[in-house]
Amino acid sequence: MAESQGCPFKHAADVDFMDPVVQENWFDAYDVLRAEAPIYFMPQLGMYVLTRYDDIEYVLRRPTLFTTGPDVQDTEPLIKFPENRALYEQKGWVRYTPLGENLPKHKHYRALVDPKLTLSAIREKEPFIRGVINDLIDTWIDRGEVDFMKDFAEPLPMIVIGELLGFPRMDLPKLKEWSFAWVLPFSRGLSFERERWAVEQHIELQHYIHAQVKEKRRAPKDDIISHLTVVEIEDVELGRRRPLTDQEIIGITDHLLIGGNETTAFALANGLWILFRNPDTYAALQAGPDKIRNWVEEVLRIESPTQGLYRHVSEDTEVNGFALKKGDMLAIRYGAGNRDPERFPEPQQPDLDRKNAGRHLAFGLGEHVCPGATLSRYEQWLAWEILLQRVHNMRPVPEKDDFTHIPGIWLRALKTIHMRFDKA
Ligand code: HEM
Known about the structure:
The protein is α+β, with helices and mostly antiparallel strands. The chain has helices at 20-24, 26-36, 53-60, 70-75, 82-91, 105-113, 119-123, 126-140, 148-153, 155-165, 172-183, 192-218, 224-230, 246-277, 279-287, 292-302, 334-337, 373-390, and strands at residues 39-42, 47-50, 66-67, 145-147, 232-235, 240-243, 309-313, 317-319, 322-324, 329-332, 391-395, 418-423.
C-alpha cells in the first residue's frame, strides 16, 4: 500500500507523463524534475512542465501573461477528431466553458457564480448536506463493509451539487454518467469511437440542461440555474449588460456540475487511503476532531485530485530566469507544488498541525481559483466529522483494492476503494 516502491527515474529525461508508471505515482517523477529541471520541456507532451511551488504561483498570479480557456484549446483541441468536434454544431451547442474564459470576460462570468458559492451561501445548505451524509451512511452502516467510492464518495458531492444547481434528484444517476463522459477527453489519446461516444453523451447532457433552463425561465426557483436565467452579464464587446444565452448557461452549468462532483469524490477517497496508510494520523484525528479542517487541507495537498492543468504563454517572457516564448504551453503541476519541500517540509507526511496546510495549490490560485473550493471543503469537513463519529476502526479490504489509479495526466483518482469498519 506504500505510495512508492523506490524512484525508477534518475534524470528529467527519463520522465514521460504518458508513461503508466509515472501516472501511478507522480511524486517520484516530480522530485526528479523539481531537482534537475523545474521548468522542463517534455517532448512527449509538447509542454513545459512546472514543478516548483514558487514558479507555479508566479504563473497563476499573472492570468493575462499566462492564459487559459478557448485559445489554449485552439492550439491543442480537447476533442481531437474534427468529425467529432463537428457533432457539437450539428446536434448540440459548441463545447464552450465561459468560466474558463480569460480576462476581461472571465471576471464577469465569475461575478455571476461566486456569490452562490460563498461560505455563507453554503452554510445555509449545512442541514441538507448533513442529511445526505447520514442517509448515505445509513444505507451501509449495518453491513460492516462498504464500497466507499461507489456508496459514499461519489454520491455525496453529486447529490449536493445537483441540489445547488436545481436538478431533480431522480436524474442524478444519468447526470453521473454524463459527468464521466465530460471528463473522459481530458485523459487524451482516446480512440475515434471512444471520443465520439464522449461527445454524444455530452450533447445529451447539453439538451438535458437546456430543457431545465427552459423550465426555470418559465418558473424560477432558488437554485443556481434559475439565478443564471435572470441575471445579466456585462458584455465587454457590446459595452452593456445583457442576459446570458442558453449556450452560456449550459457551459457554466455543466462545468459546475462536473467540477462539483468528480474531484470532491476523489478527495474523499484519497483521504481514506491516506488514513489507511497513516494509523497515527487516524488515531490523532479520532482523538481530536478539531483537527478535521487541517486534515482536509492535508489530503488535498498530499493527493491533489487535480494534479495539473495547462496555460498558454501570451508573450515572450521569463519565469525565474527561464525564457519562454509566445505560444509555449505550460503544464502546471499543482500536485508537484504541493509536495515542494521548500514550502512544505516532509511533504509526503500528513501533519495535522501544519501551520501553512491551507496554502496548498490544489484549488489553484488567483483569477481562476476554484469557485467550488468552499463547497468542496465544507462537504469534506462534514463527511469526516460524521464518519469519525459513526464509524470506527476503518480498515482496508485488501482483496478488493489494489490502490491503482485511473490513467490520465490531469486528475488523480483511485479506481476503487472499500473499507471495513465497526459501527460506533
Ligand atoms: C476537491 C475538489 C476540487 C478540486 C481539487 C478542484 C480543483 C480545481 C482547480 C485546480 C481549478 C483550476 C484553477 C486554475 O485554472 O488554475 C479549478 C477550477 C474550477 N473548479 Fe474546481 N475543484 C474542486 C471542486 C470544485 C467544485 C465543488 C466545483 C463546483 C461547485 C468546481 C468548479 C470549478 C470550476 C467551474 C472551475 C473553473 C474556474 C475558472 O477557471 O475560473 N470545483 N478547480
